[in-house]
Design a protein that fits this description.
Layout lengths: L3 H21 L10 H7 L27 H4 L7 H9 L1 H7 L6 E6 L1 H5 L9 H7 L6 H17 L2 E2 L10 E2 L6 E7 L2 E5 L3 E10 L2 E6 L7
Parallel strand pairs: 1-7
Antiparallel strand pairs: 1-2, 3-4, 4-5, 5-6, 6-7
Helix pairs in contact: 1-2, 2-4, 4-8
Bound molecules: 2-acetamido-2-deoxy-beta-D-glucopyranose (NAG).
The site of 2-acetamido-2-deoxy-beta-D-glucopyranose has 3 residues, from loops.
């Protein structure tokens, strides 16, 4: 066991009450994904502040012997909401665990996700077509899951290294995007979303932390 147990106690007191609970206590949404539980039980869970890109004892080698994106996604607490979403989307988790596919993960800060006018799995068109119960029942869960998958994939660029100015498309998304330095800050274009930092560089890609979310609908 790694000394994560201590962090878990801390998390259950701090993160779940301040971050997760408000986000997932939407009465319209039956929380079939159990984000909180997964986050608390994640063995690679967000540990104490670790300098970005520093070697960490939490970086456990994958089957290939290299550290992969799946090993480090849970490392930075400031993006643990997004990391939880990724865990809920099996195809996304698999990709980040795949040594043969590189990915640039554009992980929005928790604060950016919390500031959204709606939850990442909510689509106004669903409410328009189906009313306030759009996400209830089995069909509703599936619908929410589909929407969440679209959100997660819109934040995964199937390419790394990703050179400055090089056109790319996120998974399942038609919009051409690229990044450039603007006044000393890396920004994702054309939306101009600031990259706060490059949190991890591992064998199958990088995790970039974003100040905002992509328009994914
Ligand atoms: C994947 O990333 C690794 C490590 O950054 C790099 O050496 C390799 O060339 C990349 N592969 C592709 C296909 O871009």
């Amino acid at each position: 066991m790694r000394p994560l147990v201590v962090c878990t106690a801390l998390l259950s007191g701090v993160v779940s009450s301040q971050l997760l609970v408000p986000l997932f206590r939407d009465p319209r949404y039956p929380t079939p994904f159990r984000h909180g539980d997964q986050i608390l039980m994640d063995p690679a869970g967000p540990g104490p502040a670790i300098p970005p890109s520093a070697p960490s004892p939490d970086d456990q080698p994958g089957p290939s012997g290299d550290v992969m994106l799946s090993d480090v996604m849970g490392r930075d607490r400031s993006i643990n909401l997004f990391a939880g979403f990724v865990r809920d989307i099996e195809s996304a988790s698999r990709r980040l665990d795949d040594a043969s596919q590189n990915t640039t993960v554009l992980a929005p800060l928790n604060s950016a996700i919390e500031a959204l006018p709606r939850k990442p799995w909510e689509d106004p068109r669903d409410y328009g077509a189906l009313g306030p119960n759009a996400y209830e029942g089995g069909d509703g869960s599936e619908r929410a899951h589909r929407n969440l998958r679209r959100f997660v994939e819109a934040h995964m660029v199937p390419l790394n290294p990703w050179p400055e100015g090089k056109n790319a498309k996120a998974i399942g998304d038609d919009q051409t995007i690229w990044w450039e330095m603007k006044d000393g800050v890396r920004v994702i274009q054309p939306a101009g979303i600031q990259v706060v930092s490059i949190a991890s560089t591992v064998s199958n890609g990088q995790v970039w932390i974003l100040k905002g979310v992509r328009n994914y609908a």
